[in-house]
Amino acid sequence: MDRRTGPIYGSEDIAAEVAALEARHGQDRDRLRRELIACLSAGLVKGRAAVEEKLLAEQDGLACARRLCALMDGVVRAVYGVVVRHFYRVDNPSTGERLAVVATGGYGRGTMAPGSDVDLLFLLPYKKTAWSESVVEAMLYILWDLKLKVGHATRSVDDCLREARADMTIRTALLETRYLTGEKALYEDFLTRFDAEIVEGTAQAFVEAKLAERDARISQRGASRYLVEPNVKEGKGGLRDLNTLFWIAKYVYRVRDQRQLVKAGLFTQAEYKLFHRCEEFLWRVRCHMHFATGRAEERLSFDLQRLIAARIGYGAHGGLSAVERFMKRYFLVAKDVGDLTAIVCAALEARQEKPRAMLDRFVRRLRGSRRSALEVAGFAIENNRITVVDEEVFLRDPVNLIRLFWLADRHNRAIHPDASRLATRSLKLIDRAVREDQEANRLFLDILTSRNAPEVVLRRMNEVGVLGRFVPDFGRIVAMMQFNMYHHYTVDEHLLRSVGVLAEIEAGRLEAEHPLANSIIGGIRHRRVLYVALFLHDIAKGRDEDHSIAGARVARRLGRRFGLDEGEIDTLAWLVENHLVMSTVAQSRDLADPRTIADFAALVQTMERLKLLLILTVCDIKAVGPGVWNGWKGELLRTLYYETELVLSGGHSGVGQAERVRRAQAALREALPDWTDAAFEAYAGRHYPAYWLKVELPRRVKHARFLAAAEARGDTTATAVETDGFRGVTELTVLAPDHPRLLAIITGACASAGGNIVDAQIFTTTDGLALDTIFVSRAFVEDEDELRRGERIARAIERALKSEVRIADLVDSRRPSSGRERMRAFHVPPEVALDNKLSQRHTVIEVSCLDRPGLLYDLTTALGKLNLNIGSAHIATFGEKAVDVFYVTDLTGAKIVSGSRQAAIRRTLMEALRKEDDGLPPGRGEAARTKASP
């Protein structure tokens, strides 16, 4: 092996050391075995340390993977040699006493990560014999004693061929085999027969199976390659995708080496170099991950990202942190892997090895022929895809780089990968003249605002590179990750998904989930402004200034370029600058406070802006990631919308507060047919308007029966438990006399019983009782198990409310010590802010910090010790960041105006934030809740 790329300590060193052992202890098999294991264990430690040192110095992932593989080759060969020479020596072997040791799977490719399995095939000429069985068993026991993870199979050549015919996974493993030691002629016979009897004539079946397997794997692990905690091995755009491409190429084109892919015509030389660069980078990341963790860790989690970025050598630059620069590189590589996949699929289609697909399954095929328009522009339809008629089409008219995607949208056709490859090679044609071209911008705006599948077409434009080239501001955020636990995708992927959500709402496919947005979208006047605003709302992420303010400037410039008029541009810039406001107000302000609504209405000013901002907010939250949107957020946004509508309409809204309360009460009355009118009227009078506006009907029904049952028993303290499989939570309903420390007692009891609060609704009745609905994250799959856990948490709450336990001690005993490294990856500076302008009656305290278990208990306890009455609390968690807002007064019901008193509050709360705040894992997910005041 070339010493420049080989390990400092490797297979040759192992062979020499084992030979010396055999010379010394060859006559004492027991001692030889012990010494062999000790020698190989030390050799593996020494060799891996040398390989890691080389990796840190050279930063070559493929070289690292090959060195580790060569090191393992030396171990396997040494073990085989000792076994057949000293343990089961046969001087004159029969035809059945032959054995080849073969590497399969990833090990067979000649690459290994530090934590990879050692996949071995013990290849026999016929069935097992006593000798072969003894040799295999002896080898495996030694390898297991070396603490290696060994995947193994013992088969004859006929067995291998029979299994390969029946099982595509086995066939794939046998496709990538590599001779290690033993009878080489036996292995070569296997190769010849495998090629002739298995591969010959079965290419299409293999391709379809591998692509279906890839689709299933990606669907299981997240359909996007832009997940912010990607799986480097199995995720979309990861190593397994590259493996799949080579399996297919090897099977279809009958190549043995990656370099033969160019000669076979599958890749150009430049594309092969891209394949090699992607493979090297992914192996580099994977090897660093295994070395850093000491295990086969494949998920690039937040805590690892910062560590791996440092190991590779990334630093902060251009407004991005080191970890954000590293992850941007990762996602660009994942994008390149996607491009290579498209190239291979195109080649397979040309060979009729792969079925064809449409652009989007939701879009109906357009009627009528437009082939003449295609031909005039230099395009055609081939294999049901838009393609180019010649390689000069973009050179003749660079605007065709935009027109290609416009035609794909209009014809509901996917783009032929040959056309995509030509577009990628022609990106330099998109210069300032093309960006300023009126027709190019008209075509782009048509794509962005299409009623067909704008997200699909925009994503293809992004993957090809046209989108970032045509809109350079978008190019700046391509593959940019946001290093936090809130956003699930890169910035560009989030923007494209938000456009897709808008298209789905407009098409009526999300009516049940977003009823208000669905009902108002048809009446907005600035439809195309809304699409452009969603496309641009995070366009300025990664800059030194507030991305909303910087984004508004970008929006004005691009709005003019896209052809919007001045009125549309003003609305566009306003939406981008204020795209976070409605979500912030809904989740962290008291919507029952008139000042909240008045201030928000003053900002919005018109019903058109209110409608646009509501829809934009829904799309923005929905596109953050799975599970971020929930019904509670929908209720908050709808409440804010209707309250603001009432102000903007001068109090003459068709759906005013009084009417909505009346409707809510009427709906509940209809749902309680067994109640008398008198009983219902008495019950309805126990709730303030905020309750009727913020609680959905099914929960109102449960509350009514829960309170009635408690009253019948004469109880003022009661709990109820119910599971919610759809939302993945357990619902705890608590009834108790209201008092200042009630909130702290409930949150503390939940924390002490291991219940992580993810959502809550808290209200006070007119007769002085608190009606709290707490949602905790689910821990068990089966409802029966989860109900038992929920009842345990409910009992803890009841005991705490009855002063049977000391909450502080219980909370402290349950603060976990695990998961610290994950949270140390993030830094959220603790802040406490007091504001007397946000409410007419209350001082508003806003606390932001790194989330942790028991945080809410610590804060509410501190507020209680400060003798503050909590009028309402609004608890939100954005990934690792907690933002808790409390509306408080002093014991006389007045605001906190004294400077010294405000300073004492800040000091006390900051002390509470520092408690146990050294990197504990988060104890809550997204949460928002409100406690109504009399």
Automatic annotation (TrEMBL):
The keyword Repeat applies. Residues 491-613 form the HD domain. InterPro entries: ACT-like_dom_sf, ACT_dom, HD/PDEase_dom, HD_domain, NT_sf, PII_UdlTrfase/GS_AdlTrfase, Polymerase_NTP_transf_dom, UTase/UR. Keywords: Hydrolase, Magnesium, Multifunctional enzyme, Nucleotidyltransferase, Repeat, Transferase. Residues 1-373 are annotated as: Uridylyltransferase. It comes from the Bacteria. Residues 914-934 are annotated as: Disordered. It catalyses: [protein-PII]-L-tyrosine + UTP = [protein-PII]-uridylyl-L-tyrosine + diphosphate; [protein-PII]-uridylyl-L-tyrosine + H2O = [protein-PII]-L-tyrosine + UMP + H(+). Uridylyltransferase (UTase) activity is inhibited by glutamine, while glutamine activates uridylyl-removing (UR) activity. GO terms for molecular function: [protein-PII] uridylyltransferase activity; phosphoric diester hydrolase activity. Coiled coil: none annotated. Its cofactor is Mg(2+). One of its GO terms (biological process) is regulation of nitrogen utilization. It holds the Pfam family ACT_ACR9_3rd. Its EC number is 2.7.7.59, 3.1.4.-. Residues 731-813, 844-920 form the ACT domain. HAMAP family: PII_uridylyl_transf. Modifies, by uridylylation and deuridylylation, the PII regulatory proteins (GlnB and homologs), in response to the nitrogen status of the cell that GlnD senses through the glutamine level. Under low glutamine levels, catalyzes the conversion of the PII proteins and UTP to PII-UMP and PPi, while under higher glutamine levels, GlnD hydrolyzes PII-UMP to PII and UMP (deuridylylation). Thus, controls uridylylation state and activity of the PII proteins, and plays an important role in the regulation of nitrogen metabolism. Has four distinct domains: an N-terminal nucleotidyltransferase (NT) domain responsible for UTase activity, a central HD domain that encodes UR activity, and two C-terminal ACT domains that seem to have a role in glutamine sensing. Belongs to the GlnD family. This is Bifunctional uridylyltransferase/uridylyl-removing enzyme.
